[in-house]
Amino acid sequence: MTAPAAHVDVGAYALGLLEEPDRRAFEAHLSACLPCHEELAALSGVAATLDGIGPIAEAPGGLPEPAPVPELLHRRIRRERRGRAARALAGAAAGLVLLAGALGGGYAVGADKPPARAAAGGGDGTAALLRDGRRVSASDAGTGASGTVAMQGTPWGSRVALQLGKVRGPLECELVAVDGAGRAHTVAGWSVPAKGYGLPGSPQPRLTVQGGAAVKPADISRFEVRTLGPRGRTLLTVPA
């Protein structure tokens, strides 16, 4: 018996139909083959049932045709293999659905709407926050930057939206909320292209960005737009 043929001898082994050399070879194969173990366990009940069937009396017209036991066993083996494959595929599909659900909901913060990413258009509820939230505006004569900040309290802190204009890049910036104790809470970060926002030749009149901070609106004393890097500076301060 060759190794590739060992799997199909489960039924014959369960019924005790294998010759001694084949039986020993199959038992050696069985010690390292989990699928054959499972099939043998499934067929053990069939083998016990067949062992309990007595001899069939001879019919008047002669001997009856013997039941095709090996073929029936092979059919059952094939059905069980197809069933296991179907269950494995169903489990994999369920895992993909769960994974897709986890990735799709990964932006949610508590029960609130997802915080928006930095974007010139300001989607994901940013426009509504700028319209309905508590708004404060300021400009800086030294840097020329101007902006409006809107905030809204949440169970976990504050949702914050910023509209920023008259800033030339290339820069990397962040918006921080400074509380009454002077601690800075990062709200969002973004990069400014070389042509900037709200300047002659700029592709967009302003930058709109939304984020969140783990501090309540009543505890925020001011917002600051800062540049990142070793020579970082404050482009705009907006009192809260």
Short description:
With 240 residues, the chain is an alpha+beta fold.
For the structure shown, list the relevant keywords.
240 residues, alpha+beta, four-stranded antiparallel beta sheet, 5 helices, 32% helix, rod-shaped
Description:
23% of the residues are buried. The chain has 240 residues and is of the alpha+beta class. The strands form 2 sheets. The chain has a 4-stranded antiparallel sheet with strand order 1-2-3-6, covered by helices on one side. It has a 4-stranded antiparallel sheet with strand order 5-4-7-8, with no helix packed on it. The N and C termini lie far apart (84 Å). It has helices at residues 10-14, 20-30, 34-51, 69-104, 126-132; strands spanning 134-139, 146-154, 157-165, 171-179, 184-192, 207-213, 220-227, 234-239. A hairpin with a 2-residue loop joins strand 2 and strand 3. The protein is built from 5 helices and 8 strands, in the order αααααββββββββ.
**C-alpha-based Rg, rounded:** 37 Å
The total strand number stands at: 8
Distance between the termini: 84 Å
Net shape: rod-shaped
Let me know the largest β-sheet: 4 strands, antiparallel
In terms of quaternary structure, the protein is: single chain
Strand portion: 25-35%
Give the helices and strands as they follow along the chain: HHHHHEEEEEEEE
Count, helices: 5
Q: Structural class of the secondary elements?
A: alpha+beta
**Uncertain segments:** 96-123
Percent in helix: 25-40%
Average predicted confidence as pLDDT: 74
Tell me the strand order in the biggest sheet: 1-2-3-6
Domain Putative zinc-finger: 10-37
Pfam families: zf-HC2
Protein name: Zf-HC2 domain-containing protein
Transmembrane segments: 85-109
